[in-house]
Each structure stands twice: as structure tokens, then as C-alpha cells.
């Protein structure tokens, strides 16, 4: 049994008994039942994930998977492929939006080169390159099945290392010019929705670019015919290395009963792949924000999740995931630190 199979086999259902206890505790606190809305829902979910009534998420870790996409050759992005490399160095130097937000949230950021075209060198870069970017999915498979599997296992390894170091809340983010095309192709494979309903402007292409992007996705699906019931096949045919890496992180977090936050469209596509590999993984996922990418809310629908935030964001990097971390921690404080009616000696007749 390989690392992927071992990890998937460890994922269990949420602890329903502990979730019931959490709900009882929340209903006894000095507030009307359900009045803290999604914070209460998170507290219950965290109890089910961790098996603890008063879980802690005080060691926040955020993973940014970086990889390039051969489909950029089709003109689907407003930015050149070189920007992936440039942004990786920006992350490493602490100059990107995700760095700024992670610092505010006291989250540790890990940058992983899982498939950048250029050879990168930096002391604080985790280099686990599966291949130098995917192949052009409009002309054939983005990668081989073996490469897709290897990328999933990179995510498992990176997530496992952080969990062994004490991480108890993990955010997922990415960098890869062209990755909204791959993510939309994954979503188009899994759902019957039209491309008009799920494909957006990505990094800021114009109307002509959007039309081209839809044509490329249509062509990629016709050429590759990904198998809807096979997550690895979908990844290999029309996916991305960083998408596979994030899916691996989600799987290993679930296997270790650690909550993991889904970010935008690309992270959401990774969650769809993870769900294909183990449906129970969705119980361990916490939604962050609603992206302006039209396919993103469709992904949440497929995952059975509702976004915590709606800030008209479409940056990527995991910025929405990081922004949600303190809300998740707030939920743990509510259930553990608020007084019950009995403790506060408040009598309701």
C-alpha cells in the first residue's frame, strides 16, 4: 500500500457524539441559541474533526503550492508564465498579500515548488518538483497518472511534516499562471453546468480572452475525456501539479483530524479531487471566502459548504483562507470561554 492509499484509509467520519456535546454546550451559553451563526457551526464541526469539545487552533500553518501550466501557450492568461517564478520569490521575501495577512493572523507560511518551470533556489523554499510545469492540456494530458499521484503525495508529505511540528489549522493556497483554466476544466468534468456558468476572467483577461479560455477548456475535455469517477485521472488529464498538492494536504489533514481551510477556485478544485478520492474528506474542510470567479460558489455547492466571507476577492495565494483563520479560532474561544447561564447565575423563567 502506497502513501496515498495509507492516508486515504485513515480518514474517518466526524465524531458525532462530540459534535452533539458541542451543540449542547453552545445552547447553554449566555446567548440565544444559534445567535452566533456560522461561528457556532464551526465550533461544532471542529469538535467533530478533532474529537475534542474545546479544540485549539493556535498553531496556524498556511501552504502555498507553486507550479506552472503548459496551457498558458494557448493564450488563456493576461500574465506571462514567468510571473509564477517572480511571485514565488516575492512570497519568499515576504512581500505578497498572503505574507502580510499571514503575519497579522500569526500563521506560518510554507512555500512549495511542486512544479515551477524554472529551477528555483532559496533557503526557505521547499523544493519537491514533480516536473517542470504541466504539459498543454489542450493538446493532451497535463501530466501522466504517475506524476499526478506523485504530486498528491508531495502534498501529503508537506502537510504531514507541518502536523508533526504541531500545526492544528492548515490553510491551502497556490501560485500558478493559467491555473484557473485547469481548475475550471476540473469543475466542468465533474458537473453538468455550462462553461458560461463556471468560467471566469481569472487574472483579468478581456472578453476575447474569456471566449478563448472557454474554447480551450472545451478542447481539453474533448481531447482528454477525463473519467468523472476517477480523481487521479481528472488530475492527470486536465489538472495541475499545485492542485494535486493541495488535494494531498487536505487528505493528510483529514487523516490526522486537523481542520483545513479551502481558499478560492483553485483550492476548491483541489477539494473536489480530494472528495473524489475520499468523500469523507469534506467533513474536515472549512470554507473561507466566496471568490468572484463564478465557478467557486458552484464548487462550494458540490462540497456542501458555505463561505464565511464575501469580499469580492480573486487573488489566490490562499489569502481568503488566511483571512478566515482568526474566525475559526474565534469559534474555539466562544465554546470554551463564554459562560453558561448556570455559571453566570442568569435565570430564564
Automatic annotation (TrEMBL):
Listed GO biological process terms: cobalamin biosynthetic process
Gene3D superfamilies in the cross-refs: 1.10.1610.10, 3.40.50.10210
Molecular function per GO: nicotinate-nucleotide-dimethylbenzimidazole phosphoribosyltransferase activity
Enzyme Commission no: 2.4.2.21
Positions of the catalytic residues: 317 (proton acceptor)
EC top class, as a word: transferase
Highest taxon of the lineage: Bacteria
Family: Belongs to the CobT family.
UniProt protein name: Nicotinate-nucleotide--dimethylbenzimidazole phosphoribosyltransferase
The gene coding this protein: cobT
